[in-house]
Amino acid sequence: ISTLYKRSDYYETQINAFLNQTYAPEEIIFYQNENHFTFNLSKEMIAKAKNKNIIIKHVHSKDHNYKFHGRFTLPLISDSDYIAIFDDDTIPGNKWIENCLKLCKEKKCILGANGRVLNKECNWVNSSYSLGDGQAVLKDTFVDFVGHCWFFKRDWIYYMWMQEPNTLQNGEDIHFAASCFINGGIRCMVPKQVLSDRSDWGDSNPELGWDDNASWKKPQHHDQRKEIITFWAKKGWKGILARE
Hints:
Elements: E1 2-4, H1 11-19, E2 27-33, H2 43-51, E3 55-61, E4 82-86, H3 96-107, E5 109-117, E6 129-131, E7 141-143, E8 145-153, H4 157-160, H5 172-184, E9 187-190, H6 221-234, H7 240-243
Parallel strand pairs: 1-2, 2-3, 5-9
Antiparallel strand pairs: 4-8, 5-6, 5-8, 7-9
Helix pairs in contact: 5-6
């Protein structure tokens, strides 16, 4: 599942990355918010997907922007065992799904391209450290929440919707991680990634997320995330450092 909003330049690159996975998906769904451009696949891309027996679907909310949380409703009506969700600027390496499937089964965790570990007070003011974002990750590492993409067992999506979000304007990554940990004991992990080989990366071109459409550049973005983390901390969410 990927999201379309204002970035019209990346979705065929994304589809190509999905089609070239060493463990191929059964279907690819694009969830489009509002009507900023026309989703139109080339004949070559359609033929490539058909040749691999992969279905491409387009879900379009023309008159309303359901923002970050909308795409996380689609797994509720899916019959797949595992789900991968991607931001619109996130291009995975060709071994991403294969590696995530292995780790998800072994570690019982949500996998993401990058992650954050909060300080002991479990707040956003001073995150202790981050992983990914174009930097090497020396080993498979547990974090408090992951972003840019999410790979998980479909059944875990029900944990997310057991609790109404603090806000629908931001923080779906925090909401997903906190609700899964509190309700199901599910942790988050950033897989190992080396600079010399990006085939295992969830986000092989992180620089794509630096344009003016980036949500982290919007006013109130960081203040909203502080509030969301505080909201979940009051409900008993404890980060890795707070549990040690």
